[in-house]
């Protein structure tokens, strides 16, 4: 699964050691991933890696991502530069969204790039304190921002969301997929939504399915989770059982929802005009493919 299982040592205990951080920024084996406005800087279709000495003058220090063995890995945001300036500074020839690299780069590398994207996005969008409006400054290797006016500590936020494959008991086995309003015509996928305050993850599954598709579910079982730093998500995957086959879409999030047999799904996947009902980098792919394997 993409964006999860990153083997990098995040070196949390070293983030407060400024002397250690400064030394790592001068080590010749240190790598720095430059990004520009949430996009990777690439050269010949490969993400650029720099040394700290190759970075242009920045307003803030690069963010420590962790250690790859003994070598430190940082991320640096070049967003204050114009695109042409960022390309020149990094020795890159284009900018590409992280998700656009999934088809050509190793899973571990995509996870590292997504981690860099998420933490730099937070840094760039947490320049001011939400309590008093004062300016904030970066600390602890870029994993903490502190208000210079009231002293409030600001940590990176994670926004959990649930994603679920709903199954209808009985034969033939069927699963529920929905067509989202922003989706391409005839494209159906698993249901998903953000967790609200005061909800458990299971509560969020039941509410989202009921709100979007009008389907009541009872049994909800955890399947796995996936980092989703676009910009700060955590996708938590579930399998759920419906109480009945009645569907009543909300018309807001979903335009339509249907029950599909495994044969229905395989036929759609084989149809070049429809294709797979998931993105290659999404946990939705895992949920659907696991269900199909169980229904060979």
Short synopsis of the structure:
This protein has 296 residues and is an alpha+beta fold. The chain has helices at residues 18-24, 83-90, 107-125, 201-213, 262-270, 283-294, and strands spanning 31-36, 39-43, 46-47, 63-68, 71-77, 94-97, 136-139, 144-147, 153-154, 159-168, 174-180, 191-194, 217-228, 233-242, 254-261.
What do you see in this structure?
The chain is of the alpha+beta class and 296 residues long. The protein contains six helices and 15 strands. β4 and β5 (71-77) form a beta hairpin. The radius of gyration is 22 Å and the shape is elongated. The two termini are 22 Å apart.
Brief descriptors of the model:
296 residues; alpha+beta; 6-stranded mixed beta sheet; 6 helices
**Main sheet attributes: strand count, strand direction, barrel closure:** 6 strands, mixed
Uncertain runs = none
Distance between the termini: 22 Å
Order of helices and strands: HEEEEEHEHEEEEEEHEEEHH
Helix vs. strand class: alpha+beta
Shape: elongated
Helical residues, percent:
10-25%
The count of strands amounts to 15
Let me know the average pLDDT.
94
Amount of beta strand: 25-35%
Compute the number of helices. Answer: 6
Rg value: 22 Å
Task: Describe the protein's topology.
Layout: H1 18-24, E1 31-36, E2 39-43, E3 46-47, E4 63-68, E5 71-77, H2 83-90, E6 94-97, H3 107-125, E7 136-139, E8 144-147, E9 153-154, E10 159-168, E11 174-180, E12 191-194, H4 201-213, E13 217-228, E14 233-242, E15 254-261, H5 262-270, H6 283-294
Parallel strand pairs: 1-5, 10-14
Antiparallel strand pairs: 1-2, 2-3, 2-6, 4-5, 7-8, 8-9, 10-11, 10-12, 11-15, 13-14
């Amino acid at each position: 699964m993409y964006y999860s299982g990153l083997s990098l040592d995040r070196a949390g205990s070293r983030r407060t050691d400024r002397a250690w951080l400064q030394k790592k920024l001068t080590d010749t084996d240190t790598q720095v991933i430059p990004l520009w406005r949430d996009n990777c800087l690439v050269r010949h279709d490969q993400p650029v890696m720099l040394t700290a000495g190759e970075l242009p003058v920045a307003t803030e220090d690069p963010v420590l991502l962790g250690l790859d063995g003994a070598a430190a890995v940082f991320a640096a945001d070049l967003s204050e530069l114009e695109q042409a300036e960022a390309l020149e500074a990094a020795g890159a020839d284009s900018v590409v969204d992280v998700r656009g690299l999934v088809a050509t780069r190793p899973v571990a590398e995509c996870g590292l790039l997504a981690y860099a994207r998420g933490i730099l996005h937070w840094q760039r969008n947490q320049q001011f304190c939400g309590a008093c409006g004062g300016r904030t400054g970066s600390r602890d290797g870029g994993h903490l921002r502190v208000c210079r006016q009231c002293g409030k500590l600001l940590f990176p936020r994670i926004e959990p969301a649930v994603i679920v494959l709903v199954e209808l008991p009985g034969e033939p086995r069927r699963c529920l997929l929905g067509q989202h309003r922003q989706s391409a015509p005839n494209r159906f996928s698993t249901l998903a939504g953000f967790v609200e305050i005061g909800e458990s993850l299971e509560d969020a599954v039941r509410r989202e399915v009921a709100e979007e598709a009008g389907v009541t579910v009872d049994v909800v079982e955890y399947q796995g989770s996936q980092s989703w730093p676009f910009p700060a998500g955590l996708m938590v995957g579930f399998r759920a059982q419906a109480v009945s086959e009645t569907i009543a879409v909300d018309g807001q999030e979903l335009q339509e929802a249907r029950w599909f047999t495994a044969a229905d799904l395989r036929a759609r996947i084989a149809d070049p005009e429809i294709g797979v009902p998931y993105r290659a980098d999404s946990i939705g792919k895992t949920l659907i493919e696991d269900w199909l394997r169980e229904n060979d």
